[in-house]
Specification:
Chain lengths: 132, 132
C-alpha cells in the first residue's frame, strides 16, 4: 500500500492528526497526535501508561485522520496496523516530532520522561479522503 | 454527565469534529463530521450505507474529538454512546447542521438524498481534553 502523491504531500505538512484506537471491549478513543512519514510507514510516539498504547497493544488496528485546518473538506484517513513498537528510539523520535512541529526539542511537560516514550510504527492498509 | 462550561463554549463553535467508531471486528474508522449540541446530547447526521452508521448499529460506543484549528493543544474528546438513531428527522437535522456550518441549506452532493439521512443522538459518557 503506497500513498498517492497528493496524500503524501498533504501529510508532509506538520498538521495535527487524530488517532483513533479501540479497547479490547470496542470502546473508541480519539486524541490529537503528532506524526511523521518514514517511507511508506507513519511514525507516532506516546508514553507508557497512555490508553492509546494499551489499546494498540491489545488491538493493533487504528485510524489516523488528518484534517486541513484551513479547509475541513480536505482530509486524509489512514486505516492501518501497528508494524512495531520501538522503545529504544522513543526519546529520539519524540524529539524529531517536536522539531518538526515546534522547531524545538521536546520539553517533557507534566512529569513525562525520555525513558517512557514509545515509538509506534504504522503500516497503512487503506487510505481514504484526499486519495479517494 | 454534563459538560463543563468551558467545553460547552468550545463545542458551540462550528468546528469540524472527527468521529471515531469501531466495527464488530474492532477496526477503527475516523472521519470528519459536523455536530451540534442539543442540551446535554450531541447530534450528528450521516447517510444510510456509510461505514460509520453500520459500525454504530453494531457497536454504539464512539469518540468525537474536536481540535481547535488555531491551537492544536486545545481539544475536547467526548466518549459516548448512541442514545438513538432518528431517520424521521434526518433531513431536518442535516439542514440545521448545514446552516450552522455554511449558512446555507444542505446541498446533497454526490447523489445523496433527504430520505437517506439519519440523525444520531449521542449521550456523552466521558469528556477529556479541555474539561480535564
Amino acid at each position: 500500500m503506497v500513498l498517492s502523491d497528493g496524500a503524501r504531500a498533504f501529510l508532509d505538512r506538520p498538521l495535527t492528526a487524530v488517532l483513533a484506537t479501540a479497547s479490547a471491549r470496542g470502546r473508541s478513543q480519539a486524541t490529537p497526535i503528532w506524526y511523521m512519514m518514514d517511507g511508506d510507514h507513519i511514525v507516532i510516539n506516546t508514553s507508557v501508561g497512555r490508553v492509546k498504547l494499551r489499546n494498540l497493544e491489545t488491538n493493533p488496528y487504528l485510524a489516523l485522520t488528518v484534517v486541513d485546518p484551513q479547509n475541513p473538506y480536505r482530509y486524509v484517513q489512514i486505516q492501518g496496523q501497528v508494524a512495531r513498537f520501538d522503545r529504544e528510539n522513543g526519546a529520539r523520535d519524540i524529539n524529531r516530532l517536536s522539531l518538526r512541529y515546534t522547531g524545538k526539542p521536546y520539553g517533557y511537560p507534566g512529569g513525562d520522561k525520555p525513558e517512557n516514550r514509545v515509538t509506534i510504527v504504522i503500516r497503512p492498509i487503506r487510505v481514504s479522503g484526499l486519495s479517494a
